Amino acid sequence: MALRLRRGTDAERLLIVPESGELIFTTDTKTVYVGDGTTTGGVPISGATALQELSDDTSPQLGNDLDLNNFNIDGTGNIDITGSITADSIIVTTFGVTNLSVDTLSSDSGSTISLNNNLNLNTNNIVGTGNINIDGTITATGNINLGDSGDDIITSTGSWSSNIVPTADATYNIGTTSTKWLNGYFNTVDTGEVLTNTITGSNSGVVFEDATSTLNIGTIYTGTIAGDDSSIFFDSTTSTTTTNTLNVNEIYNNLDELIFTSLNNTLFVDEVVGDLRGSVFADDSTTIVDSINSEITATAVTTTELDVNLIDSTTGEIDFGSINPSRVKMFWDGTGAGLINYTTLAGGTSLVDHNVSRGTLDSPEALQLADGISGHAFRGYNGTEYSNASFILSFVDGDGVVSNDGVSGALVFINTNADASGLVIAEFDTHGVFRAPVLRPVPFADTTARDNQTGAVAGSIVYVTDNGQGASELQSFDGSTWHSLSDNIDVTAQSAGFILALADNYKYHRVTNAGAVNVTVPPESSVDFPIGSNITITQSGAGQVTFAPGSGVTINSADGRLSTRTQYSTATITKVGTDEWDLAGDIDNAGP
Prior knowledge:
By secondary structure, the protein is mainly beta. Helix content is 2%, strand content 31%. The protein has a six-stranded mixed beta sheet with strand order 32-34-36-40-41-38, with no helix packed on it. The chain has a five-stranded antiparallel beta sheet with strand order 21-22-25-26-27, with no helix packed on it. A four-stranded mixed beta sheet has the order 1-2-3-4. Strand 3 and strand 4 form a beta hairpin.
C-alpha cells in the first residue's frame, strides 16, 4: 500500500513548522522535506534544492570524492583546504575583495598554469628549482639579484636599450685580470686610465706593447677626445686641440726612426705638411710665434729654404718681415701652375724666379703666345685703403715664339697718372722696341755737361739745351760721335756702292764716285728697318747711282725708274711695308 505524504506548494510549506520526523512533499518543486520541529518548512532531503544549500552543520564531511558533474562550486566566502588541489586549470576571476593564498602551486602532468591577471606575492617569494620562462616584459620595482655566487652563469642573448650605470663611481669592474672580455666596440671611450698589455690593430699589427712601452701608430682616426672630467681636449668637429699639456717621452715614425725626444725637447722632421697651429716658444720661454695675436717675434730667421703654399691662401699675402732665407719658394695651382723662387746668389745679389706653365706643378705644360707669365703690383695707402700705383707685367710676346730655344717675352709698365684719373702704359716687346706716350731723356745744359756724363754707349740718346750753336736738340751716340736727331740730319760722303744699314736711317748720303754705283736695299730678314725709315741719296759725282732691291724686296717708283738722272740729282727712299719701299726724286732709268 502506498505511503502518502503531506503535500502542498512550496509557498504553503513555508507557512508551517513540520513536526520532528514529519515528511512534506512540494507539488511544484517536487522536493521532499523532513521536519525537525523547529525549522520553518523543514529540511530538504531530495529534489533540486537538496544539494544547493548545506545544513547548519558547522563541519560537514564527504565520505568519498565529490563529483561536480560538470557543475561549479559558486558562492561568497573562503575555501580552506589542507593538501593539494589537482586540476587541469585554475581560473581566478575576481581579485581585490579576497585573496588566493597558495602554499604550493604545481602541475603534476607538466601542463601550463596560466594567470588571467596580476599575481600579488604579498611580500613573499617565488622559490623553486627550475626555469622561469616569460614571453613579454619583466618589470621590477626595487633591486634584482642575479646569481648568488661566482659559479652562477647569466646569459643575455638580447640587446640593451638603456644605459648601464654603476651605483658608485670607480668602484666596480667589468671582467677580471684573469678573465677578460674578448672584444669591445664603442663609439666614444671616456676614461681616466687605460691599463693594457697590448693593443692590436685591425690588420693584426701591434699598436701598443706594454713590455717595451712602445706606441706604433701610422694614422690615428678618432672622434672627440675628452678627459676624465668630461672636458674636451680634442674636438673632431673643428679639428682643434684645447689641451694645455701633452706629455710624451719619445715619438718614432713607421721606420722606427726617432722624430721627437723629450730629453732635450727636439723634433726631427724633414718636412711639415699641412697647417702648424699654436704658439712657438724659444728655449728661454720667450714667444717666437704668437698664435693669439698672429705675430712672429725674432731678431732674424735664417733658413736654407722656405716653401710657402698659396693653394689654400685666400689673400695670397706673405709678410716676410725680418726673415732672411737664402731661398723662398712660393707656389700655387690656379688656371696655371706657378712657382716663385727667391734666391740669394753669390755676392749677395738677389734674384726672384717666376716659373709659370699651363699645367700643374707636377705636370707642367707649354705656354702659348700672349699668355701672361707674372707681374708685380705696387700699392700705396691713401688714408682709406691700399690703392694701385704701378704694375710691371710679363707676357709671352704675341709676335714671338714658344719653343725649345726659349720663350719670347714682353714687358708692360703701368702707372696711375698724375691726377689718378687713369693709367699711363708703356711696352717693351721682344724686338727691342719700347713704346710709350712720352719719352723724355734727362736734359744736359750743354755739350760739356753731356761729355762729363760717363757711361754713354752706342745708341744712347740725350737732350742738350745748348748744342753750341744756341739751339736745343736731341742727340744720339754712335760710340764715338754724337749726332743730332732734331731738325738737322747727318751728312755723309760715300765714294763707292754700299748696302743700306740701320745706321743709315735718316741720313743724307753724297755719292762722289766717278763711275756708276749701286745702293742695295736689303730684305727685312737681313736688316729689320722700322716702317717709316727714310734715307736720302745725292749723286755728287759723275757716276750714276742705282737703287738695287735685295731678295724679295719691292721698290715702287714712277715708271719703274731706279737711278738718279744726272749729277746732283737727289732721290729719297722710304720703307712703307714689309720688304716694300717707295723711291721718289730726280730719277731716271739706268744707263748713259
